[in-house]
Structures are given as C-alpha cells and as structure tokens.
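Kindly inspect this chain:
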Amino acid sequence: MRVLWISLRRLSDVFSVGSVRRTLSSRAMRLVQFCPKGSEGGIRIGVEQEQGHGVIDLKAFDSSMPSTMREFLELGKAGMDCAQRALASGQCVVSHTDIKLLSPVTRPDKVVCVGMNYRDHCLEQNAPIPTEPIIFNKFPSAITGPFDEISLPDNSQEVDWEVELAFVIGKKGKHIKASIVLHKMAEITKMQIQKSIFGRI
C-alpha cells in the first residue's frame, strides 16, 4: 500500500478533472475508516451515504469484511462489490455524531511525495523549475485523522498549511501507462499538511 502526495494545483497538469469523474463515476464511493466514540481502538470500515447523511458500517452489514482499510482494499473487486451492496441497502447506518473519522489509510508501506511540482511554487521560492520530479518521503506515523490534533515544534517561528491531493495506490505495478493509471488507484483524497518553518540558528 502506497500513498502519493501531489499538489492540488498540479492536478490539471496530470489529467483533466472531467475525465476523472467519467472514469470513476460508475463506482465512485466515499470509503472511510472510523471508530465509535469512546472506543478509540475499534477501527471499522464504512461507506458514506450521499449528502453525508450517515456512514454504513461494512462489518455490521457483512461480518466477513475486515476492520481496516488496508485489508479491505486488498480484497479488490469483492470488497468494492460488498460496499456497493451495502450502500444500496441503506442498512447498518451509524450517525456522524456517534463516530470519530480516522485517516483514510493507516500504516501504508510508504508515503511518497513530489516537491516543486508546479511552476507557481517555484516562482514563489525563487527556485529553478526542475527538469525531473523531486521526490521525498513522509513517515507513515505522520498521518493523522481529519480532526486530530497536530503537535507543533517548540522551536518553530511560523507554521504554514497546505492542501494536498493524495492518491492511494491499491494495486502493484511498474512502468504503468497513463491510460490505465486510474485503475491502479484505490482512492483520491485531499490532505491538509502543516509545515513548520524553522528560524535560523
């Protein structure tokens, strides 16, 4: 399981948003990891109803379903088919007020990031536009849930935030053609990143 971070402003240079919607529209679902409030260790997988009315607990709908997103994605088509059936049934719904949303995926093998990948950012930093991607990584332990607290370093003089787009890669592959790259992706999600800007010592 890999997570690839890419700047949201770079998305239009990778593929058009319209083509993503057409490609994913027949199977687009919002899958979430959550735990019941007061039960921080009990991770569950759910699929969110339209308009955010509630979350269908997949484990309650089908006891054979795993409890973590990583295990669920490894099921491939069987897992997605179950989620579609659960969504159509409207059963086993839990309210947002009774659950805590977690990060979409916990403990991926790696988090690969692409830096300086859009022209405006290079110009803002007075940096040369790279001719090849600048790759760096984040530790999987840096991933937090959408409403979790983020600890800030004591020696940081300024903290900035960015909205990033994360691609969860659900299938193994190598030298993947652009025409089939979306079929390798299990999820596209927004991530909010806090950056610490350290003062000079």
